[in-house]
Design brief:
Strand content: 15-25%
Oligomer: single chain
Radius of gyration: 15 Å
Structural class: alpha+beta
Order of helices and strands: EEHEHH
């Protein structure tokens, strides 16, 4: 997703999900998909790529996104408010 972000003077790309089947993990598939997302966002003029990752996920505990150059923001809290069941 691309979202206008006036404070950044550009657009922010948001990676809503990156899922690799368990049988394909550890084979470079996730890295390839993430690299493609980064390239796609940069080619479209985005100034930043953001994603969320559960701290209990395998990707988080193994440092997948950290190793790919992402940093966990210590000064940012992610809040969610449920609005009802999906339509």
């Amino acid at each position: 997703h691309r979202i206008p972000f006036p404070l950044l003077a550009g657009q922010e790309a948001y990676l809503s999900d990156l899922v690799v089947a368990e049988s394909w993990r550890g084979k470079g598939v996730g890295t390839g998909l993430l690299d493609a997302a980064v390239t796609c966002a940069a080619e479209r003029g985005c100034v930043r790529l953001t994603l969320n990752n559960r701290i209990t996920s395998e990707a988080f505990t193994h440092g997948f996104f950290t190793h790919a150059g992402f940093r966990q923001r210590a000064e940012f809290a992610n809040f969610v408010k449920l609005l009802g069941p999906p339509r």
